[in-house]
Amino acid sequence: MYKALTNNIPDLKNTTDDALPVYLNSLGFVQSHTLTDVRLGLGYSAFALCAATFYWDYTYGFDSTKFYTTIAVAVYTILNTALTFWIWGVEKNTVYVGTHKTSGTKIQVQTKTDKFKAVYRVTVITTTKDGKSTTKKVDKAFSGWFDAAGHFVTRPFQQMLATNVELIGQADPKNVVVAAKKEKVDEVEDNRSMDDKWASLLAESSIEDAVTSGTPAKSAKKRGKKA
């Protein structure tokens, strides 16, 4: 099911984007809606202008309102240009802006995806009260928090953010501990892989000795085991 969902990457991104403010707000961050409010204001203003122009034209006719229509077209162009600039030049894929209640540190989260890769690309910009700014970029596959049935799983997503972003980890330390355990598991697996590698090399060495001495490889393996 998840494999099928990778063909609809925008849905994966939108679902994850929706979960992000819920998680951060639960950690004591106060979300700022300024970016969204400005975008909605520009969009609704352009729509209202179009509706008013239609009403003037329908009620009074084109000839008597063409002067106002010309002005309306010019204003609409300005509003649309401003909206486009705001989305691409100011928001820049921003899905969350907030400030932590306790520390006063500001956080801005930007997200994006590639067209054919089911990878969530996150850029987190944190700014302290004294103006010190840091940027952290994290690229993680959506399979990390979507199960085989295509359902969003909250805990792995929270762990990903808490582990990779220091400010979030400080606000939610319980989800960082899991990352430490994971590193231990990875270390054990690496050690096991190394043991397997040495065992393989020992077996190959025994076979080479058997071939050189003319002894059957099977008995050479046995000698290697006894050694």
UniProtKB/TrEMBL annotation:
According to the record, the segments passing through the membrane are: 38-56, 68-88
* Superkingdom field: Eukaryota
Query: What does the entry list under GO cellular component?
Result: signal peptidase complex
* Gene Ontology biological process terms from the UniProt entry: protein targeting to ER; signal peptide processing
Which keywords has UniProt assigned to this entry?
Endoplasmic reticulum, Membrane, Transmembrane, Transmembrane helix
**Compartments where located:** Endoplasmic reticulum membrane
Q: Which Pfam families match?
A: SPC25
The membrane-topology field of this record reads: Multi-pass membrane protein
State the family named in the UniProt similarity comment for this chain.
Belongs to the SPCS2 family.
Q: What does this protein do?
A: Component of the signal peptidase complex (SPC) which catalyzes the cleavage of N-terminal signal sequences from nascent proteins as they are translocated into the lumen of the endoplasmic reticulum. Enhances the enzymatic activity of SPC and facilitates the interactions between different components of the translocation site.
Q: What is the designated name of this protein? A: Signal peptidase complex subunit 2
Q: Which organism is it from?
A: Glarea lozoyensis (strain ATCC 74030 / MF5533)
